[in-house]
C-alpha cells in the first residue's frame, strides 16, 4: 500500500458500487472483484462486479432516459458539461491519486491526464451549442431541403485501463453534448476512476439514467448481449485491434454505428537536418508518457544513419536518469506496468530482439521485487525481423533502426498494418510536408512528440481504427443526419 498520506482517505471515499439509473447499488448477488495496486501487487479494495443482468439493467436505464434527454436544451447540456469541467479541476488531486493507485502512473502523469480528461468536458460544452442543420432551396426550385442533426441514441462505451479518465471523457463528453444516453464498461483493472467520474457527473447535475457505469470481470459476456440488443445505437471502443475486430463483427449484426480507437505502431522518424536535442526531448515524451502504455507511444525509432549513434547515446542518457518507483512517491518518474501479463509481453519482445542481434544500451529487463516494473530500455542494432518493429510494445522500450534516405524512411514507417500516428523530425519545410503527405497514419506529430488535444480529431487509418474523437469530428460521431424534403 502506498505511504501517501491521502491514499487511505481517497480509497475509502471512492465509490465502489454500480451506477445504474441514477442509483448506486451492489451487483447481482453481491458479487465483487479486487482492484490491485500494480506497484505492489496488493489488493486496494473491492468493487461491484456486474453480471450480464446488471449490464442489461444499465441498458434498460439508458433506453428509458433517452426520450427525455434528447429534449433537454443544448444550453442545459452545455452547462452540465461545464460544471463537470470545473468539478474535475477542483477534485484533481484526489482523482489523480486514485488513478495512480489503481493504474500505476506517476502522480504528475495522473494530474496531466485529469487535466486532459477535463478538457473534453470543456470542449464539448462549447460544441453542444453548435449543433446545426440547414435549409435551402432545391436546385430545381420546386421544393426545399431541410437538414437536421439528431442524437444517435443509446451508446455502449468500452474503455481501457491505460487512460482510465480521458478515454472515458472523450466519449462521454460528446455523447452528453449530442443528447445521447450511455452505458460505460470500464476496464477491469481500473474501475475506480470511472466510478469517480460518474459521481462527479451526478454532482454536476446529469439526470438519472443518462450515464450508467458497470465494471465487470466478465467483459465479453456483459457486452455481447448489449451489442446485439436492437435498442443500442452506437458502440465506441478504445483498446486492442484484436478485440476491436471481434466487436466490429458483433456490431455488424445490428448495423451499429461504431467508433474504434485501436492499436498503433507509431514510427518516430528523425532526419539528419532535425534539431537533435529537441528530437530527443520529444522522444522522451512520445516514448515514456504512460510508461509507453499508450496507443500513441513511439513504438520504433527510424533515425538517419548519419545521426543515429548520437541520437541513441543521448536517448540512452535520458532513459538511464529516470527513477522507477511507486507512482504516488515523491521523485518517481516511471511507475510499474499494469500487470504481470503486460510485463510478460514486453519481456518477450525485448528478448526476441536481443536474440536476433539487438543490443540493450540501457535497461533490457524486469526490475526484480514487488510490482510489475520494467526498466527503461534503449535497443540499438535492431534487425528488420525483430517482432517489436511489427507489434505494439506497450512498455518503456525504444528500439532504434536506421535508414539511409527519405524514400527508405517512408517505406519503413509505412511498413505496418497499423496507422494511428507518426512522429516526424526535420527542419526542412518541404520535406516535412512531403513526408507528412506520404505517411499512412491518421495523425502526425511534426517536431513534437504529443498529438493529444481535445479540440483535434484523434484517430487512425488502416487497422488502427474507425472514426475520430475530439474536435468537431468527435461530436459528429454522436449525431444522425435527417433530411426532410419539403413540398411548397
Ligand atoms: O492508448 C491510447 C491512448 C491515447 C491517449 C491520448 O489521447 O493521447
Automatic annotation (TrEMBL):
Pfam families in the record, alphabetically?
A: Aldedh
Q: Which keywords annotate this record?
A: Oxidoreductase
What SUPFAM superfamilies does the record tag this protein with? ALDH-like
**Domain of life, source organism:** Bacteria
Q: Show where the Aldehyde dehydrogenase domain sits.
A: 24-484
| GO BP, sorted A to Z | gamma-aminobutyric acid catabolic process
GO molecular-function terms, A-Z: succinate-semialdehyde dehydrogenase (NAD+) activity
Q: In the UniProt entry, which residues are flagged as the active site?
A: 261
Q: Which residues cross the membrane?
A: none
Magnesium as a keyword of this entry, yes or no, is: no
Q: Which InterPro entries match?
A: Ald_DH/histidinol_DH, Ald_DH_C, Ald_DH_CS_GLU, Ald_DH_N, Aldehyde_DH_dom, Aldehyde_DH_Superfamily
State the family it belongs to: Belongs to the aldehyde dehydrogenase family.
Q: What is this protein called?
A: Succinate-semialdehyde dehydrogenase / glutarate-semialdehyde dehydrogenase
Q: What lineage is on file?
A: Bacteria, Bacillati, Actinomycetota, Actinomycetes, Propionibacteriales
Amino acid at each position: 500500500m502506498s505511504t501517501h498520506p491521502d491514499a487511505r482517505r481517497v480509497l475509502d471515499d471512492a465509490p465502489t458500487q454500480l451506477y445504474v439509473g441514477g442509483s448506486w447499488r451492489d451487483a447481482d448477488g453481491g458479487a465483487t472483484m479486487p482492484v490491485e495496486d500494480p506497484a505492489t501487487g496488493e489488493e486496494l479494495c473491492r468493487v461491484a462486479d456486474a453480471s450480464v443482468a446488471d449490464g442489461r439493467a444499465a441498458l434498460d436505464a439508458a433506453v428509458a432516459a433517452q426520450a427525455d434527454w434528447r429534449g433537454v436544451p443544448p444550453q442545459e447540456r452545455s452547462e452540465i458539461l461545464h460544471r463537470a469541467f470545473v468539478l474535475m479541476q477542483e477534485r484533481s488531486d484526489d482523482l489523480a491519486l486514485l488513478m495512480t493507485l489503481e493504474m500505476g502512473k506517476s502522480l504528475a502523469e495522473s494530474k496531466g491526464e485529469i487535466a486532459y480528461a477535463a478538457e473534453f468536458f470543456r470542449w464539448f460544452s462549447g460544441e453542444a451549442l453548435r449543433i446545426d442543420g440547414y435549409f435551402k432551396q432545391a436546385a430545381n426550385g420546386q421544393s426545399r431541403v431541410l437538414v437536421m442533426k439528431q442524437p444517435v441514441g443509446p451508446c455502449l462505451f468500452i474503455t481501457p485501463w491505460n487512460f482510465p479518465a480521458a478515454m472515458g471523457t472523450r466519449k462521454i463528453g460528446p455523447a452528453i453534448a449530442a443528447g445521447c444516453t450511455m452505458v460505460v464498461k470500464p476496464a477491469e483493472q481500473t474501475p475506480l476512476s470511472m466510478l469517480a467520474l460518474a459521481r462527479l457527473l451526478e454532482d454536476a447535475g446529469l439526470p438519472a439514467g443518462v450515464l450508467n457505469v458497470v465494471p465487470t470481470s466478465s467483459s465479453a459476456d456483459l457486452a455481447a448481449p448489449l451489442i446485439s440488443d436492437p435498442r443500442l445505437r452506437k458502440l465506441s471502443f478504445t483498446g486492442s485491434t484484436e478485440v476491436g475486430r471481434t466487436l466490429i463483427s458483433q456490431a455488424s449484426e445490428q448495423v451499429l454505428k461504431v467508433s474504434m480507437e485501436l492499436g498503433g505502431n507509431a514510427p518516430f522518424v528523425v532526419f539528419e537536418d532535425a534539431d537533435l536535442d529537441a528530437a530527443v526531448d520529444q522522444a522522451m515524451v512520445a516514448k515514456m508518457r504512460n510508461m509507453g502504455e499508450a496507443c500513441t507511444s513511439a513504438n520504433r525509432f527510424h533515425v538517419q544513419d548519419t545521426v543515429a549513434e548520437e541520437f541513441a547515446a543521448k536517448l540512452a542518457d535520458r532513459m538511464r536518469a529516470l527513477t522507477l518507483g511507486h507512482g504516488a512517491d515523491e521523485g518517481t518518474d516511471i511507475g510499474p506496468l499494469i500487470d504481470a501479463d503486460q510485463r510478460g509481453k514486453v519481456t518477450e519482445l525485448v528478448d526476441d530482439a536481443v536474440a536476433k542481434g539487438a543490443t540493450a544500451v540501457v535497461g533490457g529487463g524486469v526490475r526484480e521485487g514487488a510490482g510489475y516494473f520494467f526498466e527503461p530500455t534503449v535497443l540499438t542494432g535492431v534487425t528488420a525481423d525483430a517482432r517489436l518493429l511489427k507489434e505494439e510494445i506497450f512498455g518503456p522500450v525504444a528500439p532504434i533502426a536506421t535508414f539511409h534516405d527519405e524514400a527508405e524512411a517512408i517505406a519503413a514507417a509505412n511498413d505496418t498494418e497499423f496507422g494511428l500516428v507518426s512522429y516526424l523530425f526535420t527542419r526542412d519545410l518541404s520535406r516535412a510536408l512531403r513526408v507528412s503527405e506520404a505517411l499512412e497514419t491518421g495523425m502526425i506529430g511534426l517536431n513534437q512528440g504529443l498529438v493529444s488535444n481535445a479540440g483535434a480529431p484523434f484517430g487512425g487509418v488502416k487497422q488502427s481504427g474507425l472514426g475520430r474523437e475530439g474536435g468537431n469530428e468527435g461530436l459528429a460521431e454522436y449525431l444522425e443526419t435527417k433530411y426532410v424534403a419539403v413540398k411548397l
